Amino acid sequence: MKKILITSLISLMLATNVSADTDGENNLSKKNSGEVKDCFENVNRATFKFNQVLDGVIFEPVAKAYRILPSPVRAGTGNALDNLSTLVTIPNNILQGEFKKAGVNTGRFIVNTTVGVVGIFDVAEKIGFPEYEKEDYGQTLGVMGVGPGCYLVLPVLGPSTVRDTAGSFANILGGDAWYNVTVANDTQHFSDFDYYASRASSGIDFRAKNIDSFENLEKNSIDFYASVRSLYLQDRQQKIANSNAITETQNDSDWEEIEAQ
Amino acid sequence: MRLKKFLIFTFVIINFVGINQSYSIEPDVFVQSTVNRASEALNNKYSKEEKIEKLKQIASETVDINGIGYYTLGAYRKNISDNEINQYEMLFEQYFLKSFSSRLAEYSNPEIEVVSKEKLNENYTMVSSILVGTEQRPEVKIDWRIYTKNPENPLIRDLIIEGLSLARTQKEEFSSIIQSNDGDINALFSILKEFIK
């Protein structure tokens, strides 16, 4: 029953996504994050404010406390969480046709989970398995040509799009091996708590790594909500393009236009 | 007499050559030199106020503030009067210098290494650099969009940090403010005035 409900919800979201992109053009090909519509801006802004309050009360203080921990402890925690996220990256590598990366990531996961003590030490990197970018189901949908749809701000989880939110549901529909062995199935070895604790820790780890950048951005933005939206959409656009080449992700025509001044 | 003529001739030639000699500056050399100046300005021997003043001076000389201002305003600049454009240019310059300098003033002794450059066309070259990581922050990739229309006076038009363009972020921020105020540019002016107070 739960699966039927989730599947229906995803279908509905993707249908909304299609209607939001009825011009038939692939937004990614326009290479402009500004093309993504903020269809629910009022609700999004309210949720954004709620998240900011929540961040001020819970996440920021916890992240600041976390930063007090010795550097090797933080590095080890970050590595272990990265190692768990590989379980979502590998199927997405395969779905995107990146079989070599899927192989390397599988090797990384096996080596780091065993020799690297549940991923605390990145032994794989040292023996020649390079670390690749993380992949998720939202990115895979993007690579397959699904447009981002409307911009969304989710309570607690933060910025997203209809496509990326729909992609996240794949994790709980069997697409995340870590979710499968903790929450979805009773394996006797892990509990629901392990999954939710790892997710919360990932959030804290990310927040701790970006405390200064967030503070700086908030202080120097005249519309913080719009800045975060722009940065999120640019970041997703770049990740879906799987490219570090600036020239592929920036639109030169934006600049050429001002030459006519 | 002959010697005098020779000296005058030599003097004229030297001056002529000197006046017509142009010095184009390579974009990567320009970025490294700008970064070195900024690093010196961020030295801890200066107070925060001194750092901000020095950074503003560097930005005034090396950033195409007017160009970024036009880009940031986007299509709206076509629908506003000359008077409003002048007001915008003045406000944007102050906003930019304050925002730019206070963003950077938080860093102390940043170490930036220029890695490579890529010429996009006659007007633009992208210079890639790395902000060397420390125990507090990871390594950060920074790309610089350099406007090279006048090769003797290259100017910075954008900073792209880990693939995220600051100019584009700013453009979308401004656009959001104007849109949520029914296209009224004066709403943006009020917010900019409030920011630069």
From TrEMBL, chain A:
Which controlled-vocabulary keywords does the entry list?
Lipoprotein, Signal
Would the keyword NADP turn up in this protein's UniProt record? Answer: no
The stretch of residues making up the signal peptide is: 1-20
Q: Which GO terms describe its cellular component?
A: membrane
BP GO terms, sorted:
intermembrane phospholipid transfer
PANTHER family cross-referenced by the UniProt entry: INTERMEMBRANE PHOSPHOLIPID TRANSPORT SYSTEM LIPOPROTEIN MLAA, LIPOPROTEIN VACJ-RELATED
Q: Which family does it belong to?
A: Belongs to the MlaA family.
Q: Can you say what this protein is called?
A: Lipoprotein
